Amino acid sequence: MLVTFLIIATFTFFLMQTLPGSPFNDERLSESQKEKLYERYGLDEPAPIQYVKYMANIFKGDLGVSFQYDGRPVSDIIGERIGASAVLGAQSLIIGCMVGIILGIIAAIRHNTAIDYAAMVIAVIGLSVPNFVFAGLLQYWVGVKLQWLPVAFWEGFEYSILPTISLSVFVIATIARFMRTEMLEVLGQDYIVTAKAKGLNQFAVVMRHGLRNAAIPIITILGPMTVSLLTGTLVIEKIFSVPGLGEQFVKSIMTNDFPVIMGVTLFYSILFIGVVLIVDILYGVIDPRIRLSGGTKQ
Amino acid sequence: MEKILEVKDLQVSFDTYAGEVKAVRGVSFHLNKGEILAIVGESGSGKSVTSKSLMKLIPNPPGRITGGEIIFKGDNLVNFTEKQMQKIRGSDISMIFQDPMTSLNPTMTVGNQIIESIIKHQKQSKHQAKDKAIKLLEMVGIPNPEKRLSSYPHQFSGGMRQRVVIAMAISCNPKVLIADEPTTALDVTIQAQILELLRNLQKRMETSIIFITHDLGVVANIADRVAVMYAGKIVEIGKVEEIFYNPQHPYTWGLLGAMPNLNEDSEELITIPGSPPNLLNPPNGDAFAERNQYAMKIDYQLEPPMFKVSETHFAATWLLHEKSPKIIPPDTLRKHRQVSAIEKQKDRLAKKREKLLEVKNLKQYFSSGSNVVKAVDGINFDIYKGETFGLVGESGCGKSTTGRTIIRLYEATDGEVLYNNVNIHDKRVSGDLQKLNQNIQMIFQDPYSSLNPRQTVADIIAEGMDIHGLASSKKERLGKVYELLETVGLNREHANRYPHEFSGGQRQRIGIARALAVDPEFIIADEPISALDVSIQAQVVNLMKKLQKEKGLTYLFIAHDLSMVKYISDRIGVMYKGKIVELAESEELYQNPLHAYTKSLLSAIPLPDPDTEKIRKRIKFDESLFWNGEGEEPILREVKEGHWVSCTEQDFQSIKKQFNAV
Amino acid sequence: MSINEKEITDDLFLPADSENGTEAISRPTITYWAEVWKRFRKNKAAFIGLILISIILALAIFGPYANEHGYDEQNLTRANLPPKIPILEQVSWLGVSGTDIQGIDRYKESGITEYFWFGTDNLGRDLWTRVWEGTRISLYIAILAALIDLIIGVVYGGISAYYGGRIDNIMQRIVEILVGIPSLIVVILLILVLQPGIISITLAMVITGWVGMARIVRGQILKLKEQEYVLASRTLGAKDRRLIWKHLIPNTMGPIIITTMFTIPTAIFTEAFLSFIGLGLQPPIASLGTLINDGYKLLRIYPHMLAFSSIIISLIMISFNLIGDGLRDALDPKMRK
């Protein structure tokens, strides 16, 4: 975990050094800004010492200052922008998981029926149509043509509906497909027949014996899921002009605001590492075989 | 006698891509109150499907009951709705499944899994149900039931899990208990315990049991009546004595003859040629006719009805028709046929003097992380030219690892293997290794994974020839392949086919042909028959014996099926926890076992002989008596010429004294 | 007993002269790939995907030559024209009659008689040409990236699994670290350094993309190594080369193909995503991503600029996913009886 983070941090450090227009060698910087940076990172010192200082600063939560916002600390910018992104991400994840799991279970129980096929068609489309295309469709039809919901900005719950839907489509599709496969697999297991042989009804069999076992592999995709949500926020926030971290990130790329890009990158990495950690812990909670043997799943 | 369950003309079909597979084609039988009815048959005979149909647990789609009646308590279960069936399942009729490793929910405590059906059917409170569950666990012989209630299945061993499954099945005092191969996945000693438990429970609770199995020994041990199934039909049904001592159907003859009997000795096993028919298009007439050496014209035209042999004994074969010629069943079926074992033994002793393989202090440890598994822990034995050395033991004892280490699939942790007096585990030049790979060959267990699915049979068989450059031209190569195919009883036309087109037994013979292609002297057969049906096992074993005679091969035969090992081996080593505990001539080992483990193992094998089974006593082996690393380490000592036992100095002296006294 | 006793004549009880004990084979001979193809064809969705991809591929190759306009040919007199397709223009709801969302016929307004099938963009470039040109570039990047992924992944995963032991350990540590890094972020950073271009985008995707393939190949080979036919080959004295070429590779083809089929749509998406956040190809070169990005700017007035590129990228993604699904089912050994 820590190793991964260190590697990413090192990677960003070297990028800072080599990038055209990075804080260390950008012609656009004013003298005072340069001085500030020199002081901060001790650019007159040899590279290894610079590196150590840079790392030390990161661990203190100091990610440098933005050019665009005239010296505002990057950590402040992240703090200000994270709220909207977090709301958007959480809403999409929760809705996506819930709808996805239900859809997946229904498809599995009604295997090879019209319901199953319909659910899988929806899933393939949800998986395939890029979220920015889907967002455009929603924005045009629901926002511009039908005028039901606002198409941009962030001024209340109704503003979050379209971006949330656009973001959660992919989650729904992925989880529904996964859930269906896993559930079908589990429903074919011997212990399901055992449960049926006890005289339990189908609902009890699926909920008590199927769900938990089918859910274990789902946890594995939570990591990649977060990443796709994260990158999703970049485009969705841009499309719907949501003042979140993703929108800031894209804006910074357009304006070459490198300290912000690097800072947000590091922040995203930490987030991702955190999710991986949580997934590991969740495994133990949900699967007694891992909890009781104390090992982790390969 | 009161009939508790009656099945009339039951028919079950599965819809597959290729069409309708008629898995059960008109099965009729009844179950008396308080009896154990065994249904025997090979894989694909429809016995499991029949048993699952009784509870309507056939997955639908693709399966469906297409006809017949299942009469239970005056109702026809075939017409019951799913709701009505749920009331019956688990309370009136319950079921025990084959594999205890997969039939329990891994994420639920065993307590909750037992309680579930008690709450559902007996309307008890959670607390009452819990008390009942503790009692049940105690009844099936699980120590510390209160504590074990909150354990998860993976914390139990296979045998204990099966006990839990049994506890679940009997939790609501079912009238009928269906046990679907409940001991097939277990080791023999565990199997013996579970069979005993089932018998005791049956007496105590007065339930009736339908016991599905493929093992005639188990049938002889547990059943009151037997139904023999073949190709989706019952071909013979009767009391256990009637079936074993007066079988009428040629298929039953074949099944009984294909099994070697521990107490008997015969030159060749009876085989049933060919393999079961494809139930996608069942043949006209008697489905067994193709494989029946007594087949008559009528067998190909009309299905035989059930002929009555006695009040309780029926068989479906035209041989029982009054116009049929009288056929005498094969010899080997006569009861308790004694062969002079001593003479045979002398014969065997005479032919082996020259050591081919010597294994010295062989060790194979596997380490995963911090814990080391001592799979093979310092074993010693010799194999003489031309003999068959059997290596037996239960799962996890290290017998397969021994075989694989000898042929260097694993690099040995320690020890030597001398082949013709050369240590083949030396780091040596590759030329010698090549030669070695030609001399020593291996036959594998799983007929499905031992052949590359992407290669034709010809390429599979010729692989060794290609590696060692044994065929100089394409024509010679093909010629050799044809020859080998015929040697193992297959046809030339099979050369261009792919493995998945063959049945298990046929695949196993292709594997043998592959090993023979390089003209080896010594073959390690790693459980070559354990994945096969009884009648197919006999085909493979007969083939191996024939090849040994013709080519002077030496075998290391690894297996867990002791009766087969005894049948094929000259000498046998018994393995337990990575060590050889006893080694002797096979006859001597079976007549006069000395080590406690060997005794328990031998006593646990069910024999296909109901009279003997009824009076046999099982000997239990106390694991805690096995050397645990403290005190004097027992080592293999020769107590009598050719008979070695793992024992301490003290034990050795006392055994010696015994022998001298005799 | 329903059998009429009279029909049972004595001669029926003579021994049958059938050949006893012949080894009959009930299954027809069919090679592995023929069987896979047979099963794949039965899967309607996958087959439709295959047809769609073939059509799109053909159009991407030949589409730009259907008219004389080049992809970078600007002409402001014909800017922002909505799509107009002969014959289909009669069907009003299709929106290809040359009228914009206000219902004004732009072609009449600008006095243009030519038909622009997909309309034109704000610089008057023919969108038909640009869309297929863009599809071509997107597919090119995606397939190139998938191929490089495949090569690196197979070699890496194969070596790691085949040699095992310490080599495997070290190689796996590296993979674990790479997996721990959110790949899109690495891609973004790399493109910042390399400057956007076809090669740099491909490379950036490959840098993290091969890991998935490597893991799958490793898993498969580890599984195969324990298969008894591989052990059998070893006991026969087979050398590495034989084991790899005769046993391991043929039996790893299935998962490799399936993974590649899923890598391609991912790569197409990544490329479009990068374009969308401003890291795409530089004009005048177009890819589907840059076209979508451009289309967004004028979404409310000229939705057609977004529509065609969006539809095509969606169709490509759907088709590849369907084909991938179909192949997975067709190659799945569990289905094989």
From TrEMBL, chain A:
It is found in: Cell membrane. Keywords: Cell membrane, Membrane, Transmembrane, Transmembrane helix, Transport. It comes from the Bacteria. It is a multi-pass membrane protein. It holds the Pfam family BPD_transp_1. The lineage of its organism: Bacteria, Bacillati, Bacillota, Bacilli, Bacillales. The chain crosses the membrane at residues 82-105, 117-141, 161-179, 214-240, 260-283. InterPro entries: BPD_transp_1_N, MetI-like, MetI-like_sf. Belongs to the binding-protein-dependent transport system permease family. One of its GO terms (cellular component) is plasma membrane. GO terms for biological process: transmembrane transport. This is Peptide ABC transporter permease. PROSITE patterns: ABC_TM1. The keyword Signal does not apply. Residues 82-283 form the ABC transmembrane type-1 domain.
From TrEMBL, chain B:
The keyword Membrane applies. It is found in: Cell membrane. Signal peptide: none annotated. Residues 5-256, 357-602 form the ABC transporter domain. SUPFAM superfamilies: P-loop containing nucleoside triphosphate hydrolases. It is a peripheral membrane protein. It holds the Pfam family oligo_HPY. GO terms for molecular function: ATP binding; ATP hydrolysis activity. One of its GO terms (biological process) is peptide transport. Keywords: ATP-binding, Cell membrane, Membrane, Nucleotide-binding, Transport. Transmembrane segments: none annotated. One of its GO terms (cellular component) is plasma membrane. Its main location: membrane. PANTHER family: DIPEPTIDE TRANSPORT ATP-BINDING PROTEIN DPPD (PTHR43297:SF2), OLIGOPEPTIDE TRANSPORT ATP-BINDING PROTEIN APPD (PTHR43297). Belongs to the ABC transporter superfamily. This is ABC transporter domain-containing protein. It comes from Cytobacillus solani.
TrEMBL record, chain C:
One of its GO terms (cellular component) is plasma membrane. Signal peptide: none annotated. The chain crosses the membrane at residues 45-66, 137-162, 174-192, 198-217, 256-281, 301-327. This is Peptide ABC transporter permease. It comes from Cytobacillus solani. Its main location: membrane. Belongs to the binding-protein-dependent transport system permease family. OppBC subfamily. Keywords: Cell membrane, Membrane, Peptide transport, Protein transport, Transmembrane, Transmembrane helix, Transport. It comes from the Bacteria. Residues 135-324 form the ABC transmembrane type-1 domain. It holds the Pfam family OppC_N. One of its GO terms (biological process) is transmembrane transport. It is found in: Cell membrane. The lineage of its organism: Bacteria, Bacillati, Bacillota, Bacilli, Bacillales. It is a multi-pass membrane protein. CDD domains: TM_PBP2. Coiled coil: none annotated.
